[in-house]
Amino acid sequence: MIKNLSTYCFVITLVLLNASCKAPKQLVRPIVHEEESKNISLLNDDQKQQFQFLFIEGVKQRTIGNPEEAIKIFSRCLEMDPSSSTSLYEIANIHLLKGDFQSAMIMLERAVSLNPQNQYYLILLAKIYQQNKLYEKAAETFAALALLVPDNADYPIFHTEMLNLAGKQEEALTCYNELEKKWGVTEQVSLGKQSIFVKQGKKPEAYREIENLLVKFQGETKYYGLLADMYLADSVMDKSLENYNKVLQYKPNDGFVQFSLSNYYRVVGDYTQSYDHLKKGFDNSSLELDPKIQMYMLLAQTEDHRLTDVQQLELIHLLINEYVDDERPRALLSEYFLAKKLNKEAREQLRLVVEINKGNYTYWERLLFVDNDLLDWKSLQKDSKTAIKYFPEQPVLYILDAVSMIQLGNYQDVFAVLDSAEVNANNNNQVLSQVYTYRAEAYYKLKKYEDAYNWFDKVVKVDPQNYLAMNNYAYYLSLRSIKLDVAEKLSSLVVQNNPNNATYLDTYAWVLFKKKDYQLAKFYQESALSNSTEENPVLVEHYGDILFFLNEKDKAVKQWEKSLKMGNPSKVLPEKIKKVIFIESVEE
User: Fold this and answer.
1) pLDDT digit string, tens, across residues 236-248
2) Contact indicator for 266, 2 with CB cutoff of 8 Å
3) Which of these, 12, 49, 346, 369, is most buried using a 10 Å CB contact count?
4) CB of 338 closer than 8 Å to CB of 369
5) Res. 166: pLDDT tops 60
């Protein structure tokens, strides 16, 4: 049963307050060299001109998307003038854009140490502290900002919130209380105090804070909803329902409360009422699409959602009918079909999705992978080429186009498509691994074996975990009975990392068979058969081949006959059965 699916959600904006509850102890700053902290720029006019030129060039390089070059230039600025806090700030911003919060923090701490009165440095440093979960440092920095810019009302609130996140709940409560004395009951302060009381297990105090808001802001339904959520979480069911109904009393068309009531009845086990309110929420035209999609996904992804297939489809079609120009409801329907393994139905919806919104890459990629899963190579080729027109910089689209071409036997033209994929790969080894793999496959199909093997070697080098390519490489070597030691090494590594994959086990057994290690080959072929999720006539034929060379010819014939009955198209298999001899299938 879902106990904590609180759906009456509110976005609480920061209330503007105008004072900090107390001065900071001391702004946390890094230890810097004494001479650097006291350094005053003594550049002459020529040096200043050169510095300005470099700084502008650094900004230019950052703007046009050359962050590494920009860092080098700003670093040269620092060599000329170690007291240049602006250069440090620029470097910090570049590190921040790259997601390197640690380096950004170090640069900003140096910038603040050189220019502690710069509000923008402090703001960014506080945010980075918060990102790195250094909440106490963030609190002290926001407190410093509150002193530095007393007219800015946000900083004392941020300071108090960071204290709360740092686990300094009593100190945060003291700040909230002092702010409340100055400004009276306000939303941000009351909700901040309520969250602390909830953490401390002080339920009466937590309820009182919400009730104070209701006294001051009479008829404000979101507070009734929040109070109802609290009672529901505490299993006080009668008061929870009472407050949800108060929301309806004031706002009978509130769609959010329908979701909350749906959750309420789900918790108490009345699934009929729960669905009725859920449907009302979905059918509420005053509620935007986003929360409806979020609610559907939350329920669909929850194991105990209690929605039947019929109900899920009904909700999705309500959205499709209301939001005819928005592709997202149909995208939901496609995902529903994919979850049910109804790939053709899913693809039909995805085609409608990309027709409505051609500019969403994710939709196109989803469509192409469904084409691939359906083994519909003509559709994959057509759809991939269309997608490339809209997203010519996406290498995966070229790779999928290449897959379709190989499957359709158009080997010679594959290379130009793969060249485009490589150009757009941006040195991503996993993408390059796929590019090299399909080059190798195309060369093999063209019977240019040495070229194929060379590209397979590159695959192994660039991506040692591309087990599918390594398996195919080993199998192709074994078919021509060359480099069998290399084939065994590759295939062994693949099996070690995929011990239950029937295809990989079959390849390893076949390599061992070619090396005349028939007993070990038998062991792995039996493992392949036991791990196969479906009847595979090739695996059965290989098992017969191995038994034949172990002088178990009667058993071998039985396996060959079984393979033939399973639909094995091998042209030599009937002759093997008739003459009781081994003939290697050239079709392999």
Assistant:
1) 999 999 999 999 9
2) yes
3) 346
4) no
5) yes
Q: Which residues contact 126 (CB under 8 A, 6 or more apart)?
A: 138, 141, 142, 145, 158, 162
Alpha-carbon gap, residue 126 to 96, rounded angstroms? 13
Q: What are phi and psi of 286, to 5 degrees?
A: -80, -15
Contact assessment for residue 229 and residue 260, using Cβ atoms and an 8 Å cutoff: yes
Crossing angle (nearest 10°) for helices 169-183 and 187-200: 150
Taking the CB of residue 285, how many other CB atoms lie within 10 A of it?
A: 8
Enumerate helices (H) and strands (E) in the chain, giving the number of each. 32, 0
3-state helix vs strand vs coil in the chain, percent to 5: 70, 0, 30
Distance CA 356, CA 351 (A): 9
Phi then psi for 179, rounded to 5 degrees? -65, -35
Beta-carbon contacts of 574 under 8 Å, excluding residues fewer than 6 positions away, are: 564
> How many residues are listed for the chain in this entry?
588
Predicted pLDDT at 41: 52
At 586, is the pLDDT very low, low, confident or very high (cuts 50, 70, 90)?
Answer: low
Q: Quick check: helix, strand or coil at residue 415?
A: helix
Alpha carbon distance 579, 449 (integer Å): 33
Annotate 249-274 with b (16+ C-beta within 10 A) or e (fewer).
eebeebbbbbbbbbbbbbbbeebeeb
Separation of alpha carbons 82 and 33, rounded Å: 11
What are 439-449's pLDDT values in tens digits? 999 999 999 99
Name the pLDDT band for 7 (thresholds 50, 70, 90): very low
SS3 state of residue 185: coil
Let me know: does 92 contact 75? Beta carbons within 8 Å: no
Confidence of residue 22 (pLDDT cuts 50, 70, 90): very low
Distance CA 487, CA 508 (A): 8
Contact 529, 543 (CB under 8 A): yes
DSSP E strand boundaries for 279-335: none
Q: Exposure string (b/e) for 514-549, b if CB count within 10 Å is 16 or more?
A: bbeebeebbbbbebbbebbeeebbbbbbbbbbbbbb
- Write out the two tokens for 310: 């019929």
Provide long-range contacts, Cβ within 8 A and 24+ apart, for 47-50: 47/80, 50/80
Delineate the domains of the chain, giving CATH numbers in brackets.
Answer: 1-13+186-275 (1.25.40.10), 460-579 (1.25.40.10)
In sequence order, which residues have a C-beta less than 8 Å from that of residue 104 and are 6 or more positions away?
92, 93, 95, 96, 128
Q: Which amino acid is at 34?
A: E
310-324 residue pLDDT tens: 999 999 999 999 999
Is residue 115 within 8 Å of 108, Cβ to Cβ? no
Which parts of 498-551 fold into alpha helices (H)?
Answer: 502-514, 518-531, 537-549
Return d(Cα 299, Cα 7) in angstroms, integer.
11
Alpha-helical (H) ranges within 392-501 are 395-407, 414-423, 429-445, 449-462, 467-479, 484-497
One-letter amino acid of 254: D
Amino acid letter for position 1: M
The answer to whether the pTM exceeds 0.70 is yes
pLDDT tens track for 207-250: 999 999 999 998 789 999 999 999 999 999 999 999 999 999 98
Rounded to an integer, what distance in angstroms lies between the CA atom of residue 509 and that of residue 532?
14
Cα–Cα distance for residue pair 503/524, rounded to 1 Å: 11
The burial of 128, by beta-carbon neighbours within 10 Å (0-12 exposed, 13-18 middle, 19 or more buried), is given as buried
